[in-house]
Design a protein that fits this description.
Blueprint: E1 2-7, E2 12-16, H1 19-28, E3 30-32, H2 40-43, E4 50-52, E5 60-62, H3 66-75, E6 79-83, H4 92-104, E7 108-109, E8 112-113, H5 118-130, E9 132-136, H6 143-155, E10 163-168, H7 171-184, H8 192-195, E11 196-199, E12 211-215, H9 224-228, E13 230-235, H10 243-252, E14 258-263, H11 270-280, E15 283-285, H12 289-294, E16 300-309, H13 312-318, H14 323-331, H15 334-346, E17 351-355, H16 358-372, E18 378-381, H17 387-398, E19 404-408, H18 409-412, E20 423-426, H19 433-444, E21 452-461, H20 470-484, E22 489-495
Parallel strand pairs: 1-6, 9-14, 9-15, 10-12, 10-13, 11-12, 13-14, 16-21, 16-22, 17-19, 17-20, 18-19, 20-21
Antiparallel strand pairs: 1-2, 2-5, 3-4, 7-8
Helix pairs in contact: 4-5, 4-6, 5-6, 7-17, 10-11, 15-16
């Protein structure tokens, strides 16, 4: 028995095998679909609730999963023959050239030159030698500089007419990356505006400039000739772009021989994780948040979990309700919002208050804080605030010493750089490891005005007898995240109904 593969472009291999082996490969590359058990197809026995990343109709196998296929063939004692002549390889001289380039363009923050850290060097070498993969670097780990150096190096490897695509989740990050590139290029003679074009909103999709920073939505559903111009792609913060979107965009980039993702952590859902790996390559974990803290590259942190025991009347209202019913009742509770406002009052230094729902919770909370804290500057960011205005608020807030920023997770969790944060309050809960780590990362960046980040994690306890409410269970998930990341935390129980 033999599996024979031949690379036909930078995304797919043509797989040749007997029908029996093809079926085995299909099953080996199949993953559970979250929530499939609730679909009528699975309930009625028409579907097993799994999808395969092996395109059986066209007999196409994703190059990113070749290591998994090779392992499967070894375990099944199936001969494995793979022809990858169509793929690009890089010489040792090119790798040395990358490090030489990095030496001439060191990281810069606020006009100051910083040392290059070992995990940044490792990230550059892994990306350059593998040419594909997902680099796991925590927030505050200097990821944007790594992306900048890889793009500058890639410019030297491709023809002048070829293009490089940098895909980002949102407008705010597109603007910030452009600003970062301006800072990194200062005094280098490389004019960012001559080389970089931003594609977002109504901006033109085509440009003679070689580097295109493109918001994810703008990279979807383009004509094939648009995708064909790119010889390299980097998905920045790829965990914040839906796995289906990464898969769709990257699958169309058939000429992109350099394909790298960056992330704080990949999705724990197996199907989502492997959709990204299939088109970008394997996950490469370079350093953890705790390791960066231990190296004094990120601020130290204290986590205090504030477990709110709610009034018995609210407990009875919430009992066995849906998640939507529960958070609508809890986030509009006057006692809870009084507590949050008082928590902001007692905080010293710049404080960021994070929420999930704009009209239900975020805006009313912002108005309360403005009214009750007239002597402090209070800022507000949500998806309703334009990209340029968010960037203006970010810069202003970063200059303050005792201000408050009320923001929703989605708009400030996407790589936004705000080092001067002393306190973070989780006014809304989440069980997503990505959202939690991204939110924490906003406050762990080093600043001359702070040595410690204080995180207040508000957990809503509306448990009744053996029943555990949704928001409380989300809090349990966050505790597990803190344990896995080796963060120290303490718990304080507060009775709001007393």
């Amino acid at each position: 028995m033999i599996v024979s593969l031949k690379a036909i472009n930078q995304v797919w291999c043509k797989l040749d095998a007997t029908p029996e082996i093809r079926e085995k490969v299909k099953q080996a590359c199949s993953f559970d679909v979250p929530g499939a058990e609730w679909t009528s197809q699975m309930k009625n026995g028409f579907w097993d609730g799994r999808v395969s990343l092996f395109d059986t109709k066209r007999s196409l196998f994703p190059i990113g999963l070749l290591p998994n296929l090779e392992k499967f063939c070894s375990e099944e004692k199936i001969d494995f023959d793979c022809n990858l002549d169509a793929l690009v390889s890089i010489s040792d001289d090119s790798i040395e050239g990358l490090l030489a380039l990095a030496d001439t363009l060191p990281p810069r923050v606020d006009g100051k030159t910083l040392p290059r850290h070992p995990h940044q060097t490792d990230a550059l070498l892994e990306a350059c030698s593998r040419l594909r993969g997902v680099l796991e670097i925590p927030p505050g780990g200097g990821k944007s500089w790594v992306v900048y150096i890889l793009i500058r190096w890639l410019q030297l490897q491709i023809p002048p007419e070829a293009k490089i695509l940098l895909v980002v989740p949102g407008i705010g990050l597109a603007n910030q990356i452009f600003s970062d590139f301006l800072e990194y290029s200062e005094d280098s003679g490389w004019a960012v505006k001559d080389h970089v074009h931003k594609i977002m909103g109504g901006e033109e999709k085509w440009s003679e400039k070689q580097i295109h920073i493109c918001v994810r939505n703008s990279a979807m559903d383009q004509e094939q000739d648009w995708y064909d111009q790119y010889h390299g792609v980097i998905f920045d913060e790829c965990h914040l772009v839906k796995a289906e979107s990464v898969q769709s965009i990257a699958s169309n980039l058939v000429n992109a021989w350099f394909r790298i993702g960056t992330t704080a952590t990949l999705d724990k859902v197996e199907l989502n994780r492997f959709k990204i790996i299939s088109v970008l390559g394997p996950s490469i974990k370079l350093v953890s948040t705790k390791e960066l803290m231990d190296q004094n590259l990120l601020s130290d942190m204290e986590i205090e979990i504030l477990e709110l025991k709610h009034h018995p009347e609210l407990v009875q209202k919430v009992k066995r309700r849906t998640f939507v019913d529960e958070y609508q009742l809890v986030y509009t509770d006057p006692l809870r919002n009084d507590f949050l406002v008082n928590l902001v009052k007692m905080s010293s230094g710049n404080t960021m208050v994070l929420f999930n729902f704009v009209d239900l919770h975020g805006w009313p909370l912002y108005e309360r804080i403005c009214t009750d804290l007239p002597d402090r500057k209070v800022y507000y960011i949500s998806g309703k605030i334009s990209g340029p205005e968010r960037e203006k608020i970010r810069k202003e807030f970063n200059k303050q010493k005792n201000a408050v920023l009320v923001a929703n997770y989605q708009t400030v969790g996407v790589g936004i750089n705000i080092p001067n944060i002393h306190n973070i309050i989780f006014a809304s809960g989440s069980k997503s490891i990505i959202r939690v780590l991204q939110a924490i990362g906003r406050g762990l960046r080093m600043s001359k005005n702070k040595s410690m980040l204080k995180l207040y994690d508000v957990v809503d306890n509306l448990c009744w007898k053996s029943y555990k409410n949704h928001l409380f269970k989300h809090g349990v998930h966050r505790k597990q995240i803190y344990r896995e990341e080796r963060f120290k935390f303490s718990t304080t129980k507060i009775d709001l109904g007393a």
